[in-house]
Each structure stands twice: as C-alpha cells, then as structure tokens.
Amino acid sequence: MQGTRAFGISIQITAGMLSLGLCAKDMAAQQSAVAAALSSAPQCQDLGALYWEIGDAQGVLASGQVGRAITAERVIRIASASKWVFGAYVAEKTAGKLTPAQIAALHMRSGYDQMHPLGCVGAASIDACLSKGRNGAYNAAHVGLFSYNGGHDQKLAHDLGIGAMSTSELTRDLQQTLGIDIAYAGPQPAGGISASPAAYGAFLRKILKGELQISHLLGSHAVCTLPATCAQAVESPAPYAWHYSLNHWVEDGPQDDGAFSSAGLFGFYPWIAADHSSYGILARMSLNRRAGMLSADCGAVVRRAWVKAGG
Question: Is residue 43 part of a domain?
C-alpha cells in the first residue's frame, strides 16, 4: 500500500486501485471534495471534533480529522452502531438462516420495546440486564410494528441461549464468531460496544469482502419505519422515510442514496454504499440528543461529495 497526504487528509492507495488506473491525483480530488463538504456544508457545521474515513474491501482509501480528540485508534462508545455488529453476530450464529421470530427482533417488531438506553448499568450479564426495571417488558400491542428500542436485541440474545454471558464472555464470543477486534463495555447487545473507528472499519471491510453472512443480507426483509407514512411503525429516531433491515438502516427515502447504516446515539455513524463498493465512518462523541442523526446527515453529504468527485 502506498500513502500520501494532501490538504491535511491521509490518502491510502492500494495495489487494487492502481490496477484500476486510479492515482493520487484522483484521490486528492475526492478527499478535497470531502474536506470542502465538512467545512462548508450546513449539515456538517458545529459537529465538534470528529474523525472520518472512507475505504473499500481492500482497506482505507482516505481519512481525516476535525480537531484532535477523535482519532482512528481512539476507542469510543458507539451506542446503536452496536446493532449492526450484533445483527451480523446473529446472522453468523444462524448460518444466515434466520427464523421469523429472529427476523422480527432484528426488525424491532417483536414487542420488546420498553428497555431504557442506560438499562444495563451495573448488570452482570445479559439476562441480569433484561430483568432490570421494564427492560424485559413485553408490549403485545406493538408486535409486528416497528418500534426502535434495544429491548428487542436483549430478548433475542436471551432466546439465543447467551443470556448468562457476562460482558467479557459476550465480547469473547463476538470476536471469535465474527473475527473482529471489537469489545462490549456492558452486557447490552444493541448498544454496549466501545470500539475505535479503525476496528469498526475492519468489520465493514469483512462485510464488503463477503466474509460474513450479513454480507448477503444487507437490506433484506426491510420494513418501513416512519410513523407519519407507515402504519406499521410507532417509534423511530430517524425523521426520514427509511427502511430497516436486520439491525441496520436502509437510507432509501425519496432524496437518499440507499446506503446501509447504523447511527449511534453519541454520533458514531458507519455506512456501506448501496452498491457495496465502499464504506465510510464519521466518528465523534456528543451528548446532543440528536447527535446520531446529525452525523448521519453530514455523513450523507460526505458520501455524495466523495462519489461525485470520483465520477
């Protein structure tokens, strides 16, 4: 792999890119477009310190930072970006042959939608968290309806027979199952992972390479999510007419590009392009209650800038 830098942004040029006739000049145009988007697009203003990278199945193509606080190697809480990882774990455990009940849980239509985002604090295992407060409460009225909540995954983990696992045991099994260096900070499958952008990028590259069952399931069984336009939806953090697949979003609203994604509460936003050609990450840490969607909005602008400049 060859590397160069332009405009303060790292560009990685792989042998595969060179074989396709791509060069540092081409990449410089794309990274310049991303830098311009981050500095001038309204969706990317006032986001604070962040790290971004874009890559393909072979590796990182370009990356950069705003500020110094977030780096490729810094481990941060990724909140709901954990859902994509757990969805991949479930797909792997079932050899890609998911039951209707498992699909319903990964669609957030199982009725287990009463879990509090901080509901696992102090819990020693997945089941211990499930039994706290209303974390394991069943809402029969919401069965079959999209209702965004971590309780679906918590109950699914119990049903998979891993409810007795502690945080360290869940981490070990996740790493062995998926072959990734990503760890849980708490026994909460849907939101408990702490990871570096570099480690999450490696996970996305495994998907692009077709090495995981989820690689062939992106966007499958997708359901509508926006209550205003979908009678089968009651609660969604995304104010867009997106669909939801197996623990990941499909950004396929009227003005969107169809990317797959999994925005997290604190602003960690990973994606894979609709054509599976590339992936990206916009990583930051914010307590703004809209941090995840703000990152998604900026990430979509970055993605479009990258594609347009490479056209």
Answer: no
Per the domain annotation, does 62 fall within a domain? no
The answer to whether 29 and 181 have CB atoms below 8 angstroms apart is no
How far apart (Å, rounded) are the C-alpha atoms in residues 311 and 308? 5
Position 8 scores a pLDDT of: 39
Q: At 113, which CATH number? A: 3.40.710.10
Domain count within the chain: 1
Asked if 137 and 112 count as a contact pair (C-beta separation under 8 A), the reply is yes
Q: What is the pLDDT of residue 136?
A: 97
68-85 tens-digit pLDDT: 999 999 999 999 999 999
pLDDT at 193 over 90: yes
Average pLDDT, the chain: 92
CA distance 311 to 299: 18
Provide the domain limits for residue 88: 76-309
What region does 276 belong to: left with phi over 0, alpha with psi -120 to 50, or beta? left
Q: How far is CA 135 from CA 85, 129, 157, 225, 234, in A?
A: 21, 7, 13, 22, 18
Does residue 120 lie in a domain region?
yes
Q: pLDDT above 90 covers what percent of the chain?
A: 86
For residue 119 the two structure tokens come to 């509901």
Distance (Å, whole) CA 133 – CA 30: 49
pTM score of the predicted model: 0.92
Distance of alpha carbon 53 from alpha carbon 281, whole angstroms: 5
Q: Are 64 and 12 in contact (CB under 8 A)?
A: no
Structure tokens at 251: 């950004």
Least confident among 2-16, 98-112, 130-144, 276-290? 2-16
C-alpha distances (whole Å) from 158 to each of 2, 92, 127, 183 are 46, 16, 7, 19
d(CA 45, CA 157): 38
Q: Is residue 38 part of a domain?
A: no
